[in-house]
Amino acid sequence: MHSTVTETPVITTTGLTKVYQSRGRDITALDGVDLHVREGEVFGVIGRSGAGKSSLIRCVNLLERPTSGSVVVDGTDLTALAGRGNRAGRELRRARSRIGMVFQHFNLLSSRSVQDNIELPLEILGVSGAERSRRALELLDLVGLADRAKAYPGQLSGGQKQRVGIARALAGNPKVLLSDEATSALDPETTRSILQLLRDLNRQLGLTVLLITHEMDVVKTVCDSAALMKQGRIVESGTVGELLATPGSELARELFPVTGDASGPERTVVDVTFHGDAATQPVISQLSRTYNIDISILGAAMDTVGGKQIGRMRIELPGRYEDNVVPVGFLREQGLQVDVVDEDLPAEVPAQSNGAHGAALVKETVK
Amino acid sequence: MTWSEMQPLLTQGTLDTLYMVLWSTLVTAIGGLPLGILLVLTDKGGLLQSTPVNKAVGVVVNIGRSLPFIILLIALIPFTTAVVGTFIGPTAMIVPLAVGAIPFFARLVETAIREVDHGLVEAVQSMGGSIPTIIRKVLLPQALPSIVAAVTTTVIVLIGYSAMAGAVGGEGLGSKAVTYGFQRFETGFMLVTVVILVAIVTAVQLIGDGIVRLLSRRGRTA
């Protein structure tokens, strides 16, 4: 099955601002955040700790009440609903029950069995006992834990706990799932399986997922769209294709890192960005044949989405840049973005500084 | 004093002690539990944050805890008389015992509830749970082992208090020990009452620990 992203916005925040008072000082966690998450997509917000991701996701279901700005989820303006912070009114509680949430530390009740944990949101919704138990078992089956219904959370592994957390979040049939660093406490392999599960649910149920993370890999693995947060602001945002098409996009560079140095003097190194709009022909071999030049690929980070190529590639052409103006022009004509990389020169020319910066960032992600 | 002389006194004393402790524990639990929950909820950052309420309850609880029980016992005589009709006898003693133990128990409950991971509260809020739901489905069940431990400690404190109550017109083992063991210099009798008290306390502690273990076992890896 294929994910069907529509243009209908499911989560929209407008001018979302959150200011905390701490020891008489104001701390701005969110500074005018405008977020648009479309129906059926997996949207990732990435940023370092303290960038405001956590506040953002907590403001979406109003676990934290924003200082100003509005949050609209599935057509309901949550900020307009009665109730303040912890003392949420009935309508806000009703709206929250239609938004699932999973947490970094799972937040399962150790005093309840797996099945009873999943039934908890249904108890809150006032669903009858038989129906609750039917639904819980169905959800357990969906997340692949059908045989652990009677176990207690203390008997499960981290990945299993998160599966229970996801099943619980889905109990009320939400349209939207919020994921608060859901994989950050898990090992890489378990992280992959949980992300795969989120992806499957997104496709099978048409579930819209808003996730926050500090791991670029998470965004790379599951997200259709991403936003980069810094100091309470969203500095970049868009679909992966759009981000790649944006010159100088930090997210695109980190999502598709390329490295590699020129193999010798008299070589031209260029980064070619494929952002899905380019012709689907094999451009590199065409380039090679048309101009009769040998091209080496130094590094590449590519993905094929819906038959279109997305990603970046670092290639080396023989000769100085001046000798390669025509081939580079050819690549640009194909709708590709081409940036010249020259490691030897100090960052004077914008294109070069871009490349050098990119290399530095790549090293950082590798760490 | 022979054993046949001691035995009816000890039986009566033990029964009175158990009677006083049992009922005062019940009253303490009913009074102290909501108070402890209130202390957590109204605290800074709590679900029902209210500094005036928190301060007021805190002051009352602190006063209750700082008064020596023997003084509370005497100070409460008019109140006890108003409630029970007399201030003498095991039934009357339930009043000062409960009043003395409620603040103590409330603080223990407060600590127990505070230990519940805030993430769980957040999770239930995100499901649309109201504050009563959070108390019923998260705070109390998750804190249950600690609350049972708190009840055990409170029962033991009440056994101690009840012995003291014997000095001011109460009945029970304490009263018997004072009357026979101390005022009549019956060292043997005194020793037996001490042994019985130790046995009761030990039994209560063992039972309490057992229940706590039973409750928390399912939470751990089995």
TrEMBL record, chain A:
Query: Which BP terms in the Gene Ontology apply to this protein?
Result: amino acid transport
Q: Which UniProt keywords apply?
A: Amino-acid transport, ATP-binding, Cell membrane, Membrane, Nucleotide-binding, Translocase, Transport
Report the SUPFAM superfamilies cross-referenced here.
Answer: ACT-like (SSF55021), P-loop containing nucleoside triphosphate hydrolases (SSF52540)
Residue intervals of the ABC transporter domain? 11-256
GO cellular component terms given for this protein: plasma membrane
Assembly and binders: Homodimer. Forms a membrane-associated complex with FtsX.
Similarity field = Belongs to the ABC transporter superfamily.
Q: What is this protein called?
A: D-methionine transport system ATP-binding protein
Q: Which organism is it from?
A: Streptomyces wuyuanensis
UniProtKB/TrEMBL annotation, chain B:
Indicate the segments forming the ABC transmembrane type-1 domain, all copies.
14-208
Which keywords accompany this UniProt record?
A: Cell membrane, Membrane, Transmembrane, Transmembrane helix, Transport
Bilayer topology term: Multi-pass membrane protein
Q: Which residues cross the membrane?
A: 20-41, 53-77, 83-106, 143-168, 188-208
Main localization is membrane
Q: Which GO terms describe its cellular component?
A: plasma membrane
Q: What compartments host this protein?
A: Cell membrane
Domain of life, per the record?
Bacteria
GO annotations under biological process?
A: D-methionine transmembrane transport
PANTHER family in the cross-refs = ABC TRANSPORTER PERMEASE (PTHR30450), D-METHIONINE TRANSPORT SYSTEM PERMEASE PROTEIN METI-RELATED (PTHR30450:SF1)
Family membership noted in the UniProt record = Belongs to the binding-protein-dependent transport system permease family. CysTW subfamily.
What's the protein called, per UniProt? Answer: D-methionine transport system permease protein
Lineage of producing organism: Bacteria, Bacillati, Actinomycetota, Actinomycetes, Kitasatosporales
